[in-house]
Structure formats: C-alpha cells, structure tokens
C-alpha cells in the first residue's frame, strides 16, 4: 500500500461555507506540493481522492471493440419536428439530462459474476419523506438524492468513480440509442385495445358481442385454456424499450438529446438511455466519449452539436 | 393649426441650434483625435464611416401593430417551459433567414416552395388561408383555391426548409378563425387569381375585417356548420336553413362552456413576455 496521505481537514463551517477547494497531498512530495483545503458544502462522512493517487482505481481507458459504457437517466420533455438536408421531415423526442450522477459501482463478483455494474441516478429530489436506507447510498457517494436509480452493465474498462456527473455530451449526434421507460398506464383494458384482437362485426345479427375475445382455444383435446392466453387486464405502466433510435442533435448548454421517433412514457417521466445493442447499429456507435464525457474544462464544446444530415435553421437553404 | 406650426418650428430651431453646437464640438474632437493619431502612429488607419441608421420617424414604435404569431404561444400543458424556450430559439433563427409576415385566416397568400419534381425547382401557389394550426416548429397553415374548377387545399409548414417565400397579397380578417366551411360554400368564394397583385396594407392600426357572409351549396355539407360548437358567423344561414332547423341545431348548444374554469387559459402575460423576447432576438 503506498503512502496514502489523504487527510481531510475539518475547518470551522462558518469560515468556509460555500468554498470548494481540492486537497492533494500525494505521496512523497509532502513539503513541496501545494496544499489546498477541501470542504464539501453538504456534510458527508466520507470522501476520498483515490483518482489522484498513484494506483488510481478509476483509470480512464480508451474505447475498444466490444466494450460497453454507461448510459444516462433523462427526463422526457416533449416532441418536435426536425428536417434533414434533403427536406424530409422527421419527429424527434427531446430528453433532458437533469442532474445525472454515477451513484455506485458494483464489481463483477458483487453483481452477477460476469460484468461489472454502475448504478446511475436521475433527477434530484428532496431528502425528506424518503426512507433512511434509500438515502444512505447517496450519502456514501456524496450526491443529492435522486428520483430514479438504474443499473447499467458495464465492461471493466468503462467503470467510473461514484459521484461523477454525466452530461448529454456523453452521446454524439449520429449514434443510435435504446430508450427504456415505463409506458403510460391505460388501466384495465379490453382485449381489442390490449392485444389488437379484431372483435366481431357491428351488425348482421351479432347479439351483444362486438369487442369480446371469442374463442379461448381448441376444444376437448387439451380441455383447458393455455397459460398466457391473451385476455383483458391492466395495460401499460410496465417498462418497455425502443431500440435503435438515432440521436439527431445534442444541446450541451441545457443537456438535451434529440432522439428520433417516439419514446415510451408520458411527458416529464424519467427514461434510461444507453448505447444501442442492435448488431446493425454497432458501426455508428464507434469511438464515443469513453468512459463518459468529462467536463474537465480542457475541451469547450459548441452549444449545439448537429448530425451531418440535420438542416440547421441558421444555415443557408440546401436546395 | 398656426399654434402647432409655430411650436414645431420652435422645436426645429432648438434642434438645429443643438445640432450646430454638436457639429462644432465634433469637429473639434475629430481634429484633436486626428492630430493625436498622427503624433503617435504615422498615417491614420482608414475607418469607414458608420452605416446610416434609417429610423422611420413618421410612425412611432408604439403605434405599430403588435402582432405575435399564434404558434409562439405554448399550449396549456404540463410541459417544462425549457422545451418551449428552446423551440422558440429555433423558430427565431429560422425567421431571421425567412421573412414570415403577419397574416390571419382569411388573408390571401402566395407561397413559393422548392419542389424537386418541377422544372424550375420552385412551385408557387396562391390561395386564401382557411386555418392556422399547430404550435412551435410544426405550425401549419392551409391555403385554398379553385384551379380549373377543382378545389385545391395545400397544407404548408411555416418553418419547413423548403419554404422560399411567403407573401401576403391581401391582409384581412374574416368573421371566423376557421374557414373550413368554404369547402361547402359556392366556389366563387374560394377562387383567387394566381396573378393577383398585392394590395397595400397599413402597418399601423387594426387589421381590416371582411364582414362577408358566404352563400352555401345545398345540404348535405361535410360538417354540420349550423351547430353552435363551430360558432360560425360568416355563413348566410337565412338562405339555406329554416328557422326550425336553426332551433334544432341549438339542441347541441353547451351554454356552460364559457363558465368552465378548467378550460380557462389566460395568455395575456405569457404573450407579452414572448413578444418582447421574440422582438429583441429578431432585432439582433
């Protein structure tokens, strides 16, 4: 174990409330290294600077074929049209990434024995009216409590330190994503709406039978109704995924993703966005920001990132 | 009249005096600046004169008609206002490139669009605007005309990149916002000449309202326009319906509608904010 001299200095809160400075005392260069105090404004019991030590347990690797990286949790804002340069109109859903943080890291052994996992949290919510056990995870990560927590299976070279914020620039325009969310609940629905049955004719002698399922299966041989028979019941309010949705545009100022087509869920619902697993879309997802887009300040992104096909309104007309 | 003239002349004299003073000062300043430059660097750099700003002083800004296009007003929904503000930015960017004039349902427009299937690539259509619908970037308007005896309606998107030019040939309002009943009216009310010349309209004051009441073809119509839910004032019902039929149509009246508080949507403050925002950004 190297000389890990990470000591935290607790100064009077009144002095440095609101100040945020980082401590780095690395190994041998004790006397010469600049000492800056670090205080977090929300009082946490644990914090660490493992990424600043020599054996950094959270290294940043380069993207390689077959590696899986994290996804994001976003809020569905609404939909709007987008035109391509050839004049075709497509509809896009706007997903805003609000306060997305990595909350926990589960190693291969803890999770399922095959891949590591990262738990990511979405929108910030108040810590009140929530059970203690739920808030504990966030306290350990040093992050405000989130409304939605999702797990992403991640390859070992893509693990991220808990507490890192995730931004919309994690996805590039032109790439394909899968979006998972809870569908709009429709309540108890009949068989025509729920399963798309044809029903019966409206007239020509039908007695009280217009939207009924009709026959429930074959007759005397099984002499039973098979399990899983499509019948009326509660529809919606289940998790559903839309695969292979193209990212047309990314707004880095407000952290908004413009994703092709529609996405399950109502307005202002939380969705899980991750890189597409469709084999035909793997080519478009090459060389993404890996393991994620870090806003370290060295690279200034423009406010809007467009796909090459998108017609941008300020530009001159293409035809 | 004489009093006004004299006061005006007095003002003008005052202004002239001030201007003269200013011009003298400017001259002094300019020469001093030139001398200063000559002293420090060699021949002075050529600074082009500032472009003249043409301010139309005959009409004050307050008297110009304040028109906010209806697609800017967000619908009554539980949506995050961020979504509307971002859409508005895109709309303003598009408006800086393409001039979308003020028009209402009942105005006659000429629209030029790019069309890959036409020889000259451009396609021009003239018609009366019968409906303006949609909010945000997907706002549309429908133009109707009768070409060779065939009624034609084309739905255009205001912010489509294929739009080249939108000209208002005649700006006017009608008694209704939605003129879909022109489909069941006599064709003379929907025919407009393609070579119609633009009629001059004022930028100040109110938009002229055409109180035309349209004569209809015999029933059946595509929709029961006499029913109170459409609230149409621009049809001559006395020529096509008996008073008994009018009374029968009143059965579908919903007199509680104007008192339904859940359907109230007061957009006056929203409109003002959005109007200011749009005009500031368009001027930039």
Automatic annotation (TrEMBL), chain A:
Name of encoding gene: mrpl3
Organism of this sequence: Sinocyclocheilus rhinocerous
UniProt cross-references to InterPro entries, sorted A to Z: Ribosomal_uL3, Ribosomal_uL3_bac/org-type, Ribosomal_uL3_CS, Transl_B-barrel_sf
Single GO BP term: translation
Protein family: Belongs to the universal ribosomal protein uL3 family.
One Pfam match: Ribosomal_L3
Entry annotated with the keyword Disulfide bond: no
Annotated compartments: Mitochondrion
Region annotated Disordered, chain positions: 199-222
Keyword ATP-binding: no
This protein's name: Large ribosomal subunit protein uL3m
GO molecular function (one): structural constituent of ribosome
From TrEMBL, chain B:
Subcellular location: Mitochondrion
UniProt main location, coarse: mitochondrion
Gene Ontology terms: cellular component: mitochondrial large ribosomal subunit
Molecular-function GO terms, alphabetical: structural constituent of ribosome
Pfam families per the UniProt record, alphabetical: Ribosomal_L19
Swiss-Prot/TrEMBL keywords: Mitochondrion, Ribonucleoprotein, Ribosomal protein, Transit peptide
GO biological process, one term: translation
Family per record: Belongs to the bacterial ribosomal protein bL19 family.
Descriptive protein name: Large ribosomal subunit protein bL19m
Organism field: Sinocyclocheilus rhinocerous
